[in-house]
TrEMBL record:
<dbReference type="Pfam" id="PF00072">
    <property type="entry name" value="Response_reg"/>
</dbReference>
<dbReference type="InterPro" id="IPR036388">
    <property type="entry name" value="WH-like_DNA-bd_sf"/>
</dbReference>
<feature type="DNA-binding region" description="OmpR/PhoB-type">
    <location>
        <begin position="126"/>
        <end position="226"/>
    </location>
</feature>
<dbReference type="InterPro" id="IPR039420">
    <property type="entry name" value="WalR-like"/>
</dbReference>
<dbReference type="InterPro" id="IPR011006">
    <property type="entry name" value="CheY-like_superfamily"/>
</dbReference>
<dbReference type="InterPro" id="IPR016032">
    <property type="entry name" value="Sig_transdc_resp-reg_C-effctor"/>
</dbReference>
<keyword id="KW-0597">Phosphoprotein</keyword>
<keyword id="KW-0238">DNA-binding</keyword>
<dbReference type="Pfam" id="PF00486">
    <property type="entry name" value="Trans_reg_C"/>
</dbReference>
<protein>
    <submittedName>
        <fullName>Two-component system response regulator CreB</fullName>
    </submittedName>
</protein>
<dbReference type="InterPro" id="IPR001789">
    <property type="entry name" value="Sig_transdc_resp-reg_receiver"/>
</dbReference>
<feature type="domain" description="OmpR/PhoB-type">
    <location>
        <begin position="126"/>
        <end position="226"/>
    </location>
</feature>
<dbReference type="InterPro" id="IPR001867">
    <property type="entry name" value="OmpR/PhoB-type_DNA-bd"/>
</dbReference>
<feature type="domain" description="Response regulatory">
    <location>
        <begin position="3"/>
        <end position="120"/>
    </location>
</feature>
<feature type="modified residue" description="4-aspartylphosphate">
    <location>
        <position position="52"/>
    </location>
</feature>
Length: 227
C-alpha cells in the first residue's frame, strides 16, 4: 500500500484531498503545518507528498527546497504542488525547485488522484539519482556546461535542460517541463516539448557523441540518463 503525506491547512480542501487519495486504497497522513510535515517525514517513509504553498508557519516551497537537498531517500520523494489558480510564479518556482507536478486550485479530485498515481508510476521507473558527469548548470549565467564548455542553447532549451538536471533521478512529465520552460506562455502543446527535446538531444550529441543524455519514458515523460 502506498503512503501519501498531505500538507494542507484549509480543512475543506484537506478533506477533499485525503478522501480522493484514500479512495484509491492509499494510506494518507495529513499535516496542517510545515513543521508537522517535517516531523512526519523524519519519522515515517512516504511514497509521495502533496503540498500547498501558503501555510500558517511558512511556505510549502521551503519544505520542497529542503527535501531536494536532503539525502537520497528523501530527495527522491515525488512531490505534487497545489497552487491557487493564477499564481503562476508559485507553479514555476515549485517546478524549478524540483516539484514533479502541480495542480491549480480549484481542482478535480479525480484529476488529483490520477496525477498522484502517475507520480507513483514514474517513481517506480525512476533512473539513477545523479546528473551525468560533466553536465553542469551554471544558473547564475543561465547556461549549461558540458565538460566545462557552454552548450549553444536557446532560452527555452536551457530551461528544459536545467529542469531535467534539477530533477535528476525523476521522470518529469511533459506538462511539468512545459510549465517550467514556458511559464505563463505555456499555451503550446505537448509536442512543443518533444520538438525542443529533439533539438536538445542533437546539440548534446554533437558536443558528446559517446552517450545519450535524455531518456524518453513513453507515456510518462523525460528524464536524464543515469549519472
Amino acid at each position: 500500500m502506498s503512503t501519501i503525506l498531505v500538507l494542507e491547512d484549509d480543512p475543506a480542501i484537506a478533506h477533499t484531498v485525503c478522501y480522493a487519495l484514500g479512495r484509491e486504497g492509499w494510506a494518507v497522513t495529513h499535516s496542517l503545518l510545515v513543521q508537522d510535515a517535517r516531523q512526519q517525514l523524519r519519522g515515517q517513509r512516504f511514497d509521495a507528498l502533496v503540498l500547498d504553498v501558503g501555510l500558517p508557519d511558512g511556505s510549502g516551497l521551503d519544505l520542497l527546497r529542503e527535501l531536494r537537498q536532503a539525502p537520497p531517500a528523501l530527495a527522491q520523494l515525488p512531490v505534487l504542488v497545489l497552487s491557487a489558480q493564477g499564481e503562476e510564479i508559485d507553479r514555476v518556482l515549485g517546478l524549478e525547485l524540483g516539484a514533479d507536478d502541480y495542480l491549480a486550485k480549484p481542482f478535480s479530485p479525480r484529476e488529483l488522484a490520477a496525477r498522484v498515481k502517475a507520480l507513483l508510476r514514474r517513481a517506480a521507473r525512476a533512473p539513477a539519482t545523479t546528473a551525468p558527469a560533466g553536465l553542469h548548470d551554471d544558473a547564475a549565467g543561465q547556461r549549461m556546461l558540458l565538460a566545462g564548455q557552454p552548450l549553444p542553447l536557446t532560452r527555452r532549451e536551457y530551461r528544459l535542460l536545467a529542469c531535467l538536471v534539477q530533477g535528476a533521478g525523476r521522470i518529469l512529465s511533459r506538462e511539468a517541463l512545459l510549465a517550467a520552460a514556458w511559464g505563463d506562455d505555456s499555451d503550446s502543446l505537448d509536442r512543443t516539448v518533444d520538438t525542443h527535446i529533439k533539438t536538445l538531444r542533437a546539440k548534446l550529441r554533437e558536443a558528446d557523441p559517446s552517450r545519450e543524455y535524455i531518456v524518453t519514458h513513453r507515456g510518462l515523460g523525460y528524464a536524464l540518463a543515469a549519472g
